[in-house]
Amino acid sequence: MDLTPDDVRDVLRALDSSGLDELHLELADLTLTVRREGATGWTAEQQVLRRPAVKHGAEPAAAAGPERPASAVPEGMVAVYPPLLGTFYRAPKPGTPPFVEVGDKVEEETVVGIVETMKMMTPVHAGVRGTVAEFRTGNGEFADADAVLLVVDPASGMAGSGEGSQ
Amino acid sequence: MRIHRLLIANRGEIAARVIRTCTRLGIESVLAASDAELDSLPARMADGIVRLGPAPAAQSYLDSAAVVRAAVAVGADAVHPGYGFLSENPALAQACAGAGVIFVGPAVESLHAVGDKLTARSHAAAAGLPVVPGGEAADLADAQAVAAKVGYPLLVKAVGGGGGRGMKLVRSAGELPHTLDLAVSEATAAFGDPRVYLERYIAAGRHVEVQVLGDGESAVALGDRDCSVQRRYQKLFEEAPAPLIPEGVHAEMAAGALALATRLGYRGLGTVEFLYDRERQTFYFLEMNARIQVEHPVTEMVTGLDLVAQQLAVAEGLPLRIRQEDVVLIGHAVECRINAEDWAHDFRPSPGRIDRVVLPAGDGIRVDTYVQGGSVVPPHYDSLLAKLIVHGTDRADALARTRAALELLRIDGVTTTTPVHRALLDDTDFAAGGVDTAFFERFLQARQPDPVEVS
What pLDDT digit, counting tens, does each position of A105-148 carry? Predict the structure, then answer.
């Protein structure tokens, strides 16, 4: 439970006539602080303390979560991180070819994937010239901000071998 | 059949909103939550929770089989789908019926009728509503024939789309073949339905919508809302009633929406969306949404009704308790959507941990939210954090009170769009009322703060 806007309004009406400027309520399941702000304004700060009541037979699975991709990168290699945490996609949309594959040449500005955060898409740029050496995060996997998405070999990018990308 | 125990198959502020009505009506609420939200504020508010699945929506909030399993497991009489996710999904409605659980929403046939945008268009036309000139385009020859009638610029729309998704602008005849191809392949990928249709593009349009409520026999119109302040088809600010519209046009839109609801034998809450042409003071049917809307509180403020309670009553099979003549609109209400986004960085999403939440309170002020101090805003779902809803005696009063309320609102820990609303309220065109759907992009270009350099 929590206090409804109607409950809070009732508290405010009582306070308005009392001349008090602040009230702090502590109930078993919640705390509420209301404060007078200026001539007519009020604020309410509510904290519902109650723990969620999990229905029998509906317990959450063990918080195993997907394994975090290894963060160590071999010497001389460069890790590509997401611009912000989110779900990593290797292709512009389902059913289309990936932006890049292992062995592809990339420039700093090459888009190597997209990250979906709160239903918004942000492109991931390689940030370095080189060759894609390895993917650490799979298509559709969630990546924290410090997760390694892929690893680029910058040295071989300079060598410019004949194998083209795309 | 009475609803004693309701499964809420949604999340965020709408889950909290539905739980409130359950508490008030004495209905036991059970929240179906993903692994990311087992300890959310709605989870604490509900009488119970049931695990729906892993954090990604595709494996939880979008999994209709998991929703029905959860409903059966907890012995729920009914499922409230909220908005978004599975709220207009005929498969969920069907599966609920199969499991003997009430789906709090329209009949499966209605969901099909309005989910297919071409079918909805033809129902609207048959109900006497004006539709934007256009038609189906099965191939390029078809498209060129329709284009010749409606002229350029025009929009290619996916039949399975809606809500701004699956739309493409064509400025001239030369662009049509390529854009049509692109639209068909994108529609196939996004909606599993390659069909598209063309509509004349109306540049200076306003988004005005009528709230309807039906019991399957009759329907009432509960006034209109203006939702023209949008960025990339996402609404940011809504108000009721729609300002600067002649009385006669309000009445015509309401009558049109009722005619469509009646034709469909509609049961539940629905929203009939119109494009209002400011210059000509005429309107066209766009689409119908078969669910509760994010912006429903502005209608609740001016009508004094609890729309979730009304929705539950008609889902129980009760006849409407409101007659059209009982619907009286009082004052003006507005809603600011407070999103976890960074305006200064092109509305970059800002998930994370909330440190503190202080909300404005008082008569005519309501905040619908799912966060409190210590809450986590997960990166998996949309960015809506809270809705500030303010009721005033008229539009100017509501806006003045909103300005004061925004000064008191504090959500610390993530970046929010509160500053956008403060800037919006200072804009003279906005204050005058009746802006079109292109207004906000113009406003942004003029007002967007310089991005802060991050080293």
Answer: 999 999 999 999 998 889 999 999 999 999 999 999 999 989 99
Cα B320 to Cα B82: distance, rounded to the nearest angstrom: 21
Asked whether B380 and A27 are in contact (CB, 8 A), the reply is no
Q: Which amino acid is at B432?
A: A
- Tens digit of pLDDT for each residue in B127-170? 999 999 999 999 999 999 999 999 999 999 999 887 778 889 99
pTM, entire model: 0.92
CB pairs under 8 A between A and B: 140
Yes or no: say if B33 and B40 are a contact pair by the CB < 8 Å rule: yes
Give yes or no for A28 touching B (CB within 8 A).
Answer: no
CB B67 within 8 A of CB B87: no
User: Hey, what long-range contacts does A61-68 have (CB within 8 A, 24 or more apart)?
Assistant: A61/B35, A61/B51, A63/B35, A66/A141, A66/A142, A68/A144, A68/A147
CA dihedral B165, B131, B104, B162 (to 10 degrees): 0
Q: How far is CA A55 from CA A49, B70, B113, in A?
A: 18, 10, 36
Which tens digit of pLDDT belongs to each residue from A54-100? 986 555 555 444 556 677 889 999 999 999 999 999 998 877 899 99
Q: How far is CA B33 from CA B57, B195, B366, in A?
A: 10, 35, 25
Q: Is A42 on the interface with B (CB under 8 A)?
A: yes
CB contact under 8 A, B361 and A9: yes
User: How many C-beta atoms surround the C-beta of residue A109 within 10 A?
Assistant: 10
Cis peptide preceding B90, ω within 30 of 0: no
Q: In sequence order, what are the residues at sequence separation of 6 or more whose Cβ sits closer than 8 angstroms to the Cβ of residue A59?
A: B51
Residues B91, B97 contacting (CB under 8 angstroms): no
Q: In chain A, whose CA is at the least distance from the CA of B381?
A: A118
Residues of A in contact with B49 (CB under 8 A): 52-55, 58
Chain-chain contact of B359 with A41 (C-beta, under 8 angstroms): no
| Tokens describing residue B217 | 């026999």
Task: Kindly provide the b/e burial profile for residues B131-150, where b requires at least 16 CB atoms within 10 angstroms of the residue's own CB.
Answer: bbebbebeeeebbeebbeeb
pLDDT in tens, B67-91: 999 999 999 999 999 999 999 999 9
pLDDT at residue number B455: 44
Tens of pLDDT, residue by residue over B1-23, are: 899 999 999 999 999 999 999 99
Rounded alpha-carbon distances, angstroms, from residue A92 to A83, A121, B382: 16, 10, 20
Tell me how far apart the alpha carbons of residues A46 and A5 are, in angstroms, rounded to a whole number. Answer: 11
Whether A119 and B43 lie within 8 Å, measured CB to CB: no
What average pLDDT is seen over chain B?
95
Residue B448, pLDDT above cutoff 70 = no
CA atoms of B145 and B133, how far apart (whole Å):
13
| CA atoms of A139 and A146, how far apart (whole Å) | 17
B325: three-class secondary structure by DSSP: helix
- pLDDT for residue B453 is more than 70: no
